[in-house]
Amino acid sequence: MVTIQDARRLLEQYFAEHPPALSGELYIAPEWFEDEHDYLPVWGTKEFLVDGLEPSARYDNLAIFVDKASGAVRQEYHTPNFEKIRRMTPVDAPAQ
Questions:
Q1: What is the CA radius of gyration of the chain?
Q2: Which of 20, 23, 52, 66 could form a disulfide with 7 if both were Cys (CB 3.0 to 4.6 A apart)?
Q3: DSSP labels for 20-88?
Q4: Nearest 5°: phi and psi at 8?
């Protein structure tokens, strides 16, 4: 079973290998979501998530899930996963 801290490290490694196209500094929030199968990180630009600057918001329709059993990081579209995401519950994922 992958812990939330393991998942955060796996996501950081994923972003190091696959840098997202962002108009600002990458920020991984300390508040995530989870269900019985996956973690759903909250990520985007620091300028939007911390500073609230609307022009730096993401409009890509991407959701990144970290599988709790395997640790696999997968990118999917948000729209077809809306019900899954809606049912997820908040979980703390602070940076170490």
A1: 13
A2: 66
A3: ---SS-EEE-SEEEE-SSEEE--EEEHHHHTT--GGG---S-EEEEEETTT--EEEEETGGGHHHHHH-
A4: -65, -45
> What separation, in Å, do the N-terminal and C-terminal C-alpha atoms of the chain show?
19
Contact 2, 70 (CB under 8 A): yes
Mind listing the pLDDT tens digit of every residue in the chain (96 residues)?
A: 999 999 999 999 999 999 998 889 999 999 999 999 999 999 999 898 888 888 888 888 899 999 999 999 999 999 999 999 999 999 998 887
